[in-house]
Amino acid sequence: MAEVITKEQMNEQCSFMAKIKEENNIFAITHGRERRACTKTYGCQQNENDTERIRGMLKECGFSFVDDEEEADLVIYNTCAVRENAEQKVFGRLGILKHIKEERHGDMTIAVCGCMVQQEHIAKQIKKVHNHVDLVFGTHALYRMPKLLYEAMHRKKAVFDIENSDGAIAEDIPTMHESKYQAWVSVMFGCNNFCSYCIVPYVRGRERSRKSEDIINEIKELVKGGCSEISLLGQNVNSYGKDLDEDIDFAKLLRLVNEVEGVERIRFMTSHPKDLSDALIDAMAECDKVCHQLHLPFQAGNDRVLREMNRHYTRDEYLEKIRRIKKKIPDIFLSSDVIVGFPTETNEDFEDTIKVIEEVEFDHIYSFIYSRREGTPAAKLDFVLTDEEIHKNFNRLLEVQNAISKRKNDAYVGTVQTVLVEGKSIKDENVLSGRCDSSKIVNFKGSPDLIGKYVKVKVTQAMTWSLNGELAE
Ligand code: SF4
């Protein structure tokens, strides 16, 4: 069982939130405005979920929120370590913040948190090069943010908390969800898989599951607040429950969530192919609220490369699971992650990846060029392909997948889809945007009153990444 943060430990954090709030109230009286916070998130859905908790705690501290760092009294960057370019972006932004802080004679608090700073060499680099940063805290210190922030706001020296740990579970952290109608709910944290290219197990600790009762209670609270679409989140949800005393696994958890009154749709991510069980496929097929959508990263189509990646399945085993899913759920929406240019990959190996894409016909693929991560086993492997060859292969993959995505979207034209309206389209504010059951984005004209509601939309046009339609009722 994972370490659970006690009520007393959480109460201590609550007392620091109250202290900051008191000071922020005085600030509001003397300055004629609230203290403003700006949060920026890099990386995956887990980070987005963590930022919702950071914002929840900041709200309790009495901060208001702005999007622009220049207007903020407090800036928090929640960072990602999965790819080098995400780290470079953060360092770039920190450089800009230095000037802003100087112009304001130091009257600004800057914090950096998340996976990137959980790596010791990065924390050291910030200490050495970016001494305008006031607070650095890693993934394991998230629940301690109120205390750390209080210290950072009162000390002349920067505060660092990147304590390494296998990870704990902290319940009851105040959370400010981005959307009123949809919410991500973490069911587990960390990862035990140690894929050879991946930094996640090093920065997020070992797999640890939340008790099903805590998950269900959180979902019931979300439903009370008007939320109807729940996405269950974990680095490897198929391992859910292995570390718990209760008789539970992810398939059983899905069935429990399916029973919660007021929940209309259930999604989840991410599944590791080696752990995808028949019980889960059955639960997906039998639970009426579980969307017919599965994100199942295969990463590479060549068995030798998969072994180098430490993925623990072969191409044929992966394809066999896909066949089983398609047989049980013929209208399944399939997506995957693929890495192009993994060290040792040859052009022939890459062709095996293309063959898998063509055979499965994914609806969507998140493709990435391999990014070397210090401290991972793959970082010691040599490249066979040149940068030019890797980019050529990457572009070819996009071409192949785009053609498949467009073809699959074409099949939606003329159908009527149930869409949860998420908001106005970013391109045209007269157009609403939402997702259908399979998670494809559907754009259509309609009144903003429909935001948050389920509507029927007739699909009239297929694009590569989305669908256009018109209200059917
Ligand atoms: S399953 Fe592999 S790729 Fe996914 S988080 Fe764990 S180590 Fe990383």
What does this structure look like?
The chain is α/β, with parallel strands linked by helices and 473 residues long. It folds into four domains: 3-168, Methylthiotransferase, N-terminal domain (Rossmann fold); 177-291, Transcription Regulator spoIIAA (2-Layer Sandwich), CATH 3.30.750; 318-410, 2-Layer Sandwich (Transcription Regulator spoIIAA), CATH 3.30.750.200; 416-471, Nucleic acid-binding proteins (OB fold (Dihydrolipoamide Acetyltransferase, E2P)). It contains 14 helices and 21 strands. The strands form six sheets. The chain has a six-stranded parallel beta sheet, sandwiched between helices. The protein has a five-stranded mixed barrel with strand order 17-18-19-21-20. Helix 13 (347-360) links the parallel strand 15 (333-340) and strand 16. Helix 1 (7-31) crosses helix 6 and helix 9 (250-258) runs parallel beside helix 10. The longest helix is centred in the first third of the chain and has 25 residues, at 7-31. It starts with a strand and ends with a strand. The mean pLDDT is 95. Bound molecules: iron/sulfur cluster.
